[in-house]
């Protein structure tokens, strides 16, 4: 309802319509509280006795540009209002914010600006803050629409070839349609929304404010109900769903991050959205089982001796690293990371466990510690592709710190569980020299915890092979002092060079070379 006697300004055509009316209201000197705003077709518009339709002809409002004299003449009585480019952009964005008060609010902002009140464009001002929040919400809705519209190819063929249904939060259909028209080239498509529809025939874009149901009557063969209900799957959809299922890693599920990036309200419009709740439930159940097992293990009580074979049926031993369930680390890792290098390598380098990047890449020492190791090998004159590189533990153990996965040292039982794979690699490659990087690798090779310092610069016999122990490359990444870092890299390089020397000697000498080393089993 308008205030008694106050003019009702009818907005027709979104921002452009509002702008035309607002400029004329300014020219008439009407303050915001003296006018009522309505949208064409709204109840406020149709049911009002005092309706006043101002001439909605073209009216300028520049960013930073001054009007040319001819242009001002052409628009007659409409004044030229100068607003900053930033404010012009905010007004245009906020005009797409779906709210019955938007036009009155935008006029208040414009009025204040024209009164010289520049604070109105600042987020520190109450109106300014609301304007910025509206514009932000519209930008978000535009982004969401581009991200979450899913086209279905029409099985019946014909034009438009692709159909989509989407329910945007604000009036962003025209902008998003413009984006798709630029991106989808000559393919024809139709996007329906409850407020209007967009049709691209490969050359021309038509955006209509007529509700999609009505429009679809004019476009033969579009079943809006089926699209809305997500029942318009095409023959590509099963492939997409299979792919989506396969890239979902329950071990890495972070529900809060998932819902932040893909809010739940969009799931119903996405084919893959129907899979998500079940995939989350499966992942949760798995995680709950692990948590429970841990809790049960720490409960006090009288131990009851049970023969493990009676308690659990024998399961076949895992035949590949991928299937390994010898400890719990597989649950939270992306994949097991095997060693790599020539099967005839004379030197084997053993690290601790894959890091974040190795876990994702499936290859040992590709992250920052790998760079240090490469540098040490370069200094030692040992080509990286001549050595076999592996880790004591094959799954990444980590703890979450915000969005980061931080390395956590594996427990002794995890090192022991993984010894199976390290032994298998040693038996297969039969290196002449094993260079252990850090204390975990040393302990894994010795089969017992040992003091790294006791083994530094002291190669030891290990059956047929030599053991050369040195620092872990990530130690160099943790120290702040550049001199200390250099010492560590150079110590690793020296150990690798020593390994090369021992491997060369072993290849030429029938018996263990001197100097006589400490004997280690
Ligand atoms: N640290 C390791 O011990 N191994 C890797 O593969 C990477 C970092």
From TrEMBL:
Family per similarity comment? Belongs to the uracil-DNA glycosylase (UDG) superfamily. Type 4 (UDGa) family.
Does the keyword tRNA processing belong to this entry? no
**Pfam annotation, one family:** UDG
Q: Residue span of the signal peptide, if any?
A: none
Q: Could you tell me the superkingdom of the organism this chain comes from?
A: Bacteria
Presence of the UniProt keyword Oxidoreductase in the record: no
Q: What range(s) does the Uracil-DNA glycosylase-like domain occupy?
A: 338-489
Keywords recorded for this protein, A-Z: 4Fe-4S, DNA damage, DNA repair, Hydrolase, Iron, Iron-sulfur, Metal-binding
- Kindly provide the name given to this protein in its UniProt entry: Type-4 uracil-DNA glycosylase
């Amino acid at each position: 309802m308008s205030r008694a006697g106050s003019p009702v300004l009818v907005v027709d055509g979104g921002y452009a319509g509002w702008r035309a009316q607002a400029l004329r209201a300014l020219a008439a000197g009407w303050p915001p509280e003296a006018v009522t705003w309505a949208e064409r077709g709204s109840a406020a518009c149709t049911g009002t006795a005092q309706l006043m339709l101002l001439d909605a002809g073209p009216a300028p409002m520049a960013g930073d540009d001054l009007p040319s004299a001819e242009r001002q003449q052409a628009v007659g009585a409409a004044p030229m209002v100068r607003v900053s480019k930033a404010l012009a952009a905010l007004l245009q964005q906020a005009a797409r914010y779906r709210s019955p008060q938007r036009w009155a609010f935008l006029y208040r902002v414009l009025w204040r600006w024209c009164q010289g009140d520049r604070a109105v464009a600042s987020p520190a001002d109450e109106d300014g803050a609301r304007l910025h929040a509206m514009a932000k919400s519209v930008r978000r809705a535009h982004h969401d629409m581009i991200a979450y519209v899913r086209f279905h190819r029409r099985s019946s063929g014909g034009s438009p070839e692709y159909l989509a249904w989407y329910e945007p939060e604000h009036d962003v259909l025209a902008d998003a349609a413009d984006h798709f028209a630029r991106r989808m080239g000559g393919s024809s498509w139709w996007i329906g929304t409850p407020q209007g529809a967009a049709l691209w025939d490969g050359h021309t874009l038509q955006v209509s404010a007529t509700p999609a149901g009505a429009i679809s009557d004019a476009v033969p063969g579009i079943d809006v109900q089926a699209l809305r209900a997500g029942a318009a799957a095409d023959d590509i959809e099963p492939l997409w769903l299979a792919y989506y299922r396969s890239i979902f890693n329950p071990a890495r599920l972070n529900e809060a991050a998932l819902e932040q990036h893909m809010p739940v309200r969009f799931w119903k419009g996405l084919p893959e959205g129907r899979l998500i709740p079940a995939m989350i439930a499966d992942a949760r159940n798995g995680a709950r089982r692990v948590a429970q097992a841990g809790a049960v293990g720490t409960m006090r009580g009288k131990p009851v001796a049970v023969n493990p074979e009676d308690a659990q049926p024998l399961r076949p031993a895992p035949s590949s690293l991928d299937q390994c369930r010898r400890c719990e680390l597989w649950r939270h890792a992306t994949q097991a990371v095997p060693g790599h290098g020539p099967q005839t390598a004379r030197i084997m380098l053993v690290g601790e466990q894959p890091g974040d990047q190795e876990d994702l890449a499936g290859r040992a020492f590709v992250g920052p510690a790998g760079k240090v190791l490469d540098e040490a090998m370069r200094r030692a004159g040992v080509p990286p592709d001549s050595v076999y590189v592996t880790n004591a533990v094959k799954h990444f153990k980590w703890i979450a710190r915000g969005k980061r996965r931080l390395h956590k040292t594996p427990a002794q039982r995890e090192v022991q569980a993984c010894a199976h794979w390290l032994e298998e690699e040693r038996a297969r490659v039969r290196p002449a020299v094993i260079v252990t990087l850090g204390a975990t690798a040393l302990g894994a090779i010795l089969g017992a915890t040992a003091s790294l310092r006791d083994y530094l610069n002291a190669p030891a016999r290990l059956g047929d092979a030599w053991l050369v122990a040195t620092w872990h490359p990530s130690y160099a990444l943790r120290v702040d002092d550049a001199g200390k870092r250099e010492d560590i890299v150079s110590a690793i390089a020296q150990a690798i060079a020593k390994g090369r020397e021992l491997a060369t000697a072993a290849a030429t000498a029938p018996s263990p070379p001197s100097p006589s080393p400490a004997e280690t089993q």
